[in-house]
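G.,

No rush on this.
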Amino acid sequence: MTKLTRRTAMTALGAALAAPAFVSRANAAEVTLRLHHFLPPVAPMHSKFFEVWAGEIAEASNGAIDVQIFPAMQLGGKPPQLADQVRQGICDIAWTLPVYTPGRFLVAETMSNPFMTTNAEKSSVALHQLMDEFGQNDYPGVKPLAFHTHDGGKLHTRDAPVLSQSDLQGLKLRAPNQATGDMLTALGAEVVFFPVTDMVVGLSNGVIDGCCLPYEVVPAFKLQELTSFSAAPAPAARGLYGNTFSLLMNEAKYNEMSDDLRGVIDAASGAALSQRIGKQFDAFEAFGKSMVEKQGNEIVEIPAEEIARWREAADPIHAAWIEKLNDAGHDGAAIMARANELLDAG
């Protein structure tokens, strides 16, 4: 468990720490929460967020809540099963992506469409607000703790940079989700889908020419050594895509906790946590970009006028998503309009 600094402990959960109920509480765990996620323990999200967050909750509850972290699917199953695992009580908290089960968590998945992200912090705030307004029924039996995104995706390629649609013709790219894959296909790329864990092999043996991912993924898979070029949209343009994430807690487990311990969880979750995770991902993004630069790879800018044409190519994908939302009983146009309004605000 990461050692907490005094500043971290005092600032993260001050409201909960101030509650008188914790002054006399013994330093023995009353509640154990098993947190399950898919990343290895060396991943920054594990070591720099989950371990710190778990320590803050222990501190705020005076040791009454023990969050035990199980990385790399150590409790069994596969990443697409995480949402069901937390609902069924196989784990108590899970961190997962709605796109792992396409079409199931539609409101949460909306901002995984192309050009529906800015930076991670701002987009995470927008996503959490969108879920508060439209996504309350997405997760029955589950208490959502946070929703967030990563920074906008970039195109990382082996042999040549991507500066225009013509550079995408026939390029074999690993797509991060179906909607982004549809856009890249419409622009002329040959898209393949397989888990991010298989990407290293695909780049090494020439099955793919590149991938569409944020910089924050680069260090974990040493993509800076497998690719030579990274292409990002011009400044002020939205990212090519941004997958959404959900941090979920078993509702029954939450409800069986005492009022004061539920208060600790409440203070450690919600919109502020979504913003915090987004900000953390922006820091991960900056570090990943520094690794690309350190490797000496070429970073190029896709011109704004080119991105505008790409956004037109994404319009039919957005229209199809609105229809999918409508078919599920939502007001698709209202959800997409509000998502764009939130992203453009500020």
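When you get to it, here's the other one too:
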Amino acid sequence: MFVYLNALFVGLLLLSNILAVKLFQIGEFILPGAAVVYVITYLLTDVIGEVYGKETARKTVQAGFITQLIGMLFIFIVVHLPAAPAFGLQEEFEQILGGSFRVMIASLLSYLASQHLDVTIFHRLKANHGEKKLWLRNNISTMTSQLIDTSIFIVIAFWGVVPFNVLIGMVITQYVFKLIIAIIDTPFAYLLVKWARKQEVHQEGLRVY
């Protein structure tokens, strides 16, 4: 089960980097497409930490960071390969996948800070409550880490690019949206933890057999 959770984590992480270029609007909220996907990665690290332990969750975060670096490297290489004459979308391809160095740095730094904070807070609460109150540590760790993630990313990526009041508005808007998603995904945390533990018991039984 861990393999699937880890693969899902890394897959969603890479997908969020691609989807970040799309902006969507709900009422007054203007958000990047990555906001829908990226917040789920915090749910997955919480589930992995709950079932497999703190160090395993940290290794998952580290694996995600390395995968992002490798992914960015290959995207950079492919973007700058000479386009075939039959391929008439090079400019669009560069706009969607090329991004900017500043945004990439902002993404990596916010990821490192927030994901490690999420794991730390989650397991400090777990040390106090044991296996009880999963909903509390899932929400507290995600809410805190998402504030750090959103603030670091937007400040580094957009400082000096947009007015300060717009910058603050972007932080608040994205953070509120991520809070809503974090609250909604709480039942899924329980379902995934239950499923993962059941699979671990099953695998352990097979090994004993």
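The helical segments are 2-19, 34-52, 54-79, 90-97, 101-129, 134-158, 164-184, 186-208. The chain has one domain: 2-208.

Enjoy the weekend,
O.
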